[in-house]
């Protein structure tokens, strides 16, 4: 690390402490050449995940947008906000672990629906109706029949 005062690279760490709830390390350094002290911070480099939308446009992944969509689907349902936040955390962690820089919105939508199906079937159908853009009542009924069929398979 270069000294910000004399620009030499002969510096040493004299103290290290965790900050930001353990997500970063604060280091006090001293320059061997000029003797001045300065502080640096070390933290994990965050990768920006780009979402490829249906129309081909790209935008940065926004966990609040995912959470907002799930909250709307769960409106007036007995689903705790903490459960939804835990799902968003799991989805975000899974996407980051893929180590991809871009992911299709369709993939994210399917992940959300998998989690909602387990959490609350009504919320799942609500989310699916918007996400899959149900065109008519037959599409809606087909999705509910599929859900009922899947439920019977689980009970066996």
Question: Any overview of this molecule?
Answer:
With 156 residues, the chain is α+β, with helices and mostly antiparallel strands. It is 47% helix and 21% strand. The strands form two sheets. It has a three-stranded antiparallel β-sheet, with no helix packed on it. Strands 5-4-6 form a three-stranded mixed β-sheet. A hairpin with a 5-residue loop joins β4 and β5 (58-60). The model has no long low-confidence stretch (mean pLDDT 89).
Structural class: alpha+beta
Rg, alpha carbons: 24 Å
Average pLDDT, all residues: 89
User: Biggest β-sheet: count, sense, barrel?
Assistant: 3 strands, antiparallel
Order of SSEs: EEEEEHHEHHH
Strand order of the largest sheet: 1-2-3
Strand content: 15-25%
Q: Could you give the distance between the termini?
A: 62 Å
Put simply, the count of helices is 5
Number of strands: 6
Residues in helix, % = 40-55%
Unreliable stretches covering 5 or more consecutive residues: none
- Overall 3D form: elongated
Descriptors:
elongated, 156 residues, alpha+beta, 6 strands, 3-stranded antiparallel beta sheet
Which secondary structure elements does this structure contain, and how are they paired or packed?
Blueprint lengths: L10 E9 L4 E8 L5 E7 L6 E3 L5 E3 L2 H11 L7 H17 L4 E3 H15 L1 H11 L5 H19 L1
Parallel strand pairs: 4-6
Antiparallel strand pairs: 1-2, 2-3, 4-5
Helix pairs in contact: 1-2, 1-4, 2-3, 3-4, 4-5
């Amino acid at each position: 690390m270069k000294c910000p005062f004399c620009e030499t690279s002969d510096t040493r760490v004299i103290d290290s402490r965790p900050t930001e709830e353990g997500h970063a390390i604060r280091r006090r350094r001293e320059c061997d050449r000029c003797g001045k002290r300065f502080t640096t911070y070390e933290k994990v480099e965050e990768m920006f995940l780009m979402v490829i939308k249906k129309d081909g446009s790209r935008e940065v992944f926004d966990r609040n947008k995912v959470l907002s969509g799930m909250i709307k689907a769960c409106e007036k349902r007995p689903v705790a906000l903490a459960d939804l936040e835990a799902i968003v955390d799991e989805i975000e962690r899974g996407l980051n672990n893929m180590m991809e820089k871009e992911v299709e919105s369709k993939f994210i939508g399917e992940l959300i629906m998998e989690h909602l199906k387990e959490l609350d079937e009504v919320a799942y159908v609500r989310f699916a109706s918007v996400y899959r853009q149900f065109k008519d009542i037959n599409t809606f009924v087909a999705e509910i029949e599929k859900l009922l069929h899947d439920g019977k398979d689980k009970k066996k």
